[in-house]
Specification:
Layout lengths: L1 H26 L15 H10 L4 H12 L5 E4 L4 E4 L3 H9 L5 E2 L9 H4 L1 H20 L7 E4 H17 L8 H21 L7 H8 L2 H25 L8 H8 L5 H14 L3 H13 L4 H15 L3 H6 L1 H13 L5 E7 L3 E2 L5 E2 L4 E5 H5 L15 H6 L30 H18 E5 L9 E3 L2 E3 L5 E6 L3
Parallel strand pairs: 2-8
Antiparallel strand pairs: 1-2, 3-5, 4-12, 5-8, 6-7, 9-12, 10-11
Helix pairs in contact: 1-2, 6-7, 6-19, 7-13, 8-10, 10-12, 13-16
């Protein structure tokens, strides 16, 4: 009984402290009176706005975008800080050019840029792992249909394929390592959402109970330690016999010299390179629009017949690239992108001043659904971008990997997602493999898909199931 009273009292104190800290933070909105507010700007009103829109942040961003996009930046409240939303070429360019000591971006995953320069080496094993994972997971016999949750099949294929590049065989197929890889993004999303409920000074304590970071690293060390030691031994005997994968690059060229440090870096790289949720949406678009399977299949078969499963062949799959880019555009995985923390007061050219401690971001979903940026933006038009690439001088601009002020899926400027090159190659190979190998359909075509929102993040319907069978024709 005493323990229960203590727990209740502790929770009550924690809630009270959280409310006070949040109230004080939102009270700082008086420092940014020059920035229009969507929702309330009072300390209690802004906090209540943040609570109401925890599962509909994109609606809040859209409201501000519709009202202010051609006039000024605007701000929205979250539970712990204010986000100033900027749009338009001029202001986005100012964010892009801002120094890191003023607007701080995330530097994680710089090393993954190396993958783009070595993609020719990795393409065969990427294709091999995609093929093997679909085969091992679906276990299709004859003409039978097999039902599986779209999120499950995609996460397995992505996990094994990325890890084939990162850590090689056999670890990429190890069940314990796959569990770490597939759950990493989900765990971090849940724990970060939980930490957002607490003031900053409480987060180090709360993090020990909700993030599971130490456990995650310990599990990674358990899986990686034998492999790293083996590679150290091989390198001492014959450096020509070491594998060629991302882990080996880190061992040879990275700053990390201990097994724990290498494990932490691998987890960071896996997080940056995640591509699951956006491909789930692409899979949904494919089954909802079966009329596009045939032209995609014909494109892939013709190109593979001439070029094989090569980088040159992938680069010529404009229809596949366009289909994926259009899916990303119309079903973005977040309401905002290009998040930057303001380390020093920042002044835009229009006179808007953003105080230290605020965040600056760009509206992702609203930009992608803007009629000034796209014709019929609410319509899924899978070959929208491949048609544009046929225009003189436009073949590069409309690729999936090319960030522009109108297409912000991977951010913009020097902090654009470093994993986009690997992501694009894997997704294109996955889509090409599916349309040339399987017939697919929704298991339940009568029930609408139900995406969900968690703060700024938008997740696909995780329960929807897809039917696969071996291609009939």
């Amino acid at each position: 009984m005493e323990l229960g009273c203590f727990t209740t009292a502790t929770c009550a104190v924690a809630v009270a402290i959280t409310l006070l800290a949040s109230a004080l933070r939102h009270y700082k909105a008086s420092n940014s009176d020059n920035i229009p507010t969507v929702g309330s700007s009072t300390w209690w009103g802004s906090y209540w706005t943040a609570i109401k829109h925890m599962n509909s942040t994109s609606d809040l961003v859209q409201e501000g975008y519709d009202k202010y996009k051609n006039s000024a930046p605007f701000k929205i409240p979250t539970l712990q800080h204010w986000i100033v939303i900027v749009s338009g070429h001029k202001l986005l360019d100012e964010v892009r050019k801002a120094p890191d000591d003023q607007l701080s971006g995330i530097e994680a995953g710089k090393e993954i840029f190396k993958l783009d320069y070595n993609i020719v080496v990795f393409l065969p094993i990427i294709k091999d792992e995609i093929t093997a994972t679909f085969h091992d997971t679906l276990k299709l016999e004859g003409n039978e249909w097999r039902s599986i949750a779209a999120s499950d099949i995609v996460s397995k294929v992505v996990s094994r394929t990325c890890n084939r590049v990162f850590v090689g065989l056999p670890l990429c197929r190890d069940l314990a390592w796959m569990d770490i890889s597939t759950q990493l993004t989900v765990d971090i999303l849940i724990s970060s959402s939980t930490l957002d409920l607490f003031p900053h000074f409480m987060r180090p304590l709360v993090a020990k109970f909700v993030t599971g970071a130490s456990t995650r690293v310990s599990r990674a060390v358990h899986c990686l330690a034998p492999i790293i030691r083996e590679r150290w031994d091989i390198a001492e005997r014959d450096s020509d016999q070491v594998p060629n994968d991302f882990l080996q690059w880190l061992i040879e060229d990275g700053e990390e010299q201990t097994i724990t440090a290498l494990a932490q870096r691998m987890l960071a790289v896996i997080l940056v390179a995640g591509v699951s949720s956006t491909f789930v949406e692409a899979l949904f678009h494919l089954v909802q629009h079966p009329e596009y399977v045939k032209p995609l299949r014909e494109e892939v078969l013709a190109i593979v017949d001439e070029h094989g499963w090569t980088k040159a062949g992938l680069d010529k799959m404009w229809g596949v690239d366009s289909f994926l880019k259009e899916s990303h555009r119309i079903a973005s995985g977040s309401s905002v992108v290009m998040s930057r923390k303001v380390l020093k007061e920042f002044r835009f050219s229009d006179g808007t001043v953003v105080p230290k401690g605020y965040y600056v971001a760009a509206p992702l979903r609203a930009t992608h659904l803007d009629r000034e940026n796209y014709v019929y933006p609410d319509t899924f038009d899978p070959f929208r971008f491949s048609r544009s690439r046929e225009e003189p001088g436009e073949s590069i601009k409309h690729q999936m990997i090319t960030p522009t002020p109108e297409y912000l899926e991977f951010g913009l400027g020097k902090h654009a997602c470093p994993g986009r090159f690997l992501t694009a190659k894997i997704q294109k190979l996955m889509l090409a493999h599916i349309v040339t190998t399987y017939d697919i359909k929704l298991e339940d075509e009568s029930t609408p898909l139900k995406p969900s929102q968690h703060g700024i993040f938008i997740a696909p319907d995780l329960d929807a199931r897809i039917m696969f069978r071996k291609r009939a024709t």
